[in-house]
Design brief:
There is one protein chain. The chain is an alpha+beta fold. Helix content is about 45%, strand content about 10%. It is built from 7 helices and 4 strands; from the N terminus they run αααααββααββ. It has a 4-stranded antiparallel sheet. A hairpin with a 5-residue loop joins strand 3 and strand 4. Helix 2 packs antiparallel against helix 3.
């Protein structure tokens, strides 16, 4: 019985799977070449949704009997066409762009200043920030210019040894969320604009002592 579970009774289903895989691969490759390098860039929320839909569609078409291969190829072509239309509309109409994209969120400002209200919106903790700062090879948080959660969910860290970067600079123009709507401003917006800096814990590496019996 376990042999039937592992392998079909004939090689015909395996042959159809091989042909279906080849057909879907060539279909995606062809439409990706037609649509351009933007196809799998994942620069917006819609791009991620299309990528997930393509993966699910390919897996279903290859393994299952339904939908047939032609229907799967048609669905792939439709997704690529929709993505192409949406990307062009985003580049031409700001209203369409704001309705399809998530706005980036500024999590940390110049000098390592935390943005608690924005962190609550993004559901990001200080430990999450420390993780991404370590990934970005940040040793001193006071040298951080900005930490931004992009609309796709990725977190980018900007740091340098130059002076503080203004929060209204061109690179942070889309990071417009500063306070939680309907709630009082966070500590960074109160009188005096007190800065809260993040201190990374120091790690001491030493020679382990001998255990006593």
């Amino acid at each position: 019985m376990w042999i039937e579970w592992f392998a079909p009774s004939s090689l015909q289903p395996i042959l159809w799977i091989v042909l279906g895989t080849l057909g879907m691969y060539l279909t995606i490759l062809g439409f990706a070449r037609w649509s351009g390098v933007r196809s799998f860039a994942e620069m917006s929320t819609f791009d991620i949704a299309v990528t997930i839909a393509l993966g699910s569609l390919v897996a279903t078409t290859i393994v299952a009997k339904t939908p047939p291969l032609l229907q799967g190829m048609t669905a792939v072509a439709t997704l690529f066409a929709i993505q192409l239309v949406v990307s062009r509309l985003r580049s031409r109409f700001a209203v369409f762009k704001t309705s399809t994209d998530n706005a980036p969120i500024l999590l940390m400002g110049p000098g390592g200043t935390l943005k608690p209200s924005n962190m609550r919106i993004a559901r990001v903790t200080e430990d999450d920030l420390r993780t991404h700062l370590r990934k970005a090879n940040v040793v001193d948080p006071s040298l951080v210019q900005a930490v931004v959660m992009e609309g796709t969910g990725t977190i980018n860290v900007l740091h340098s040894h130059a002076g503080d970067m203004p929060e209204d600079g061109w690179i942070l123009q889309e990071s417009a969320i500063t306070t939680v709507p309907g709630k009082p401003p966070g500590p960074e917006h109160r009188a005096g604009r007190r800065r809260r800096r993040v201190r990374l814990p120091s790690v001491q590496i030493g020679t382990p002592g001998r255990s006593r019996c």
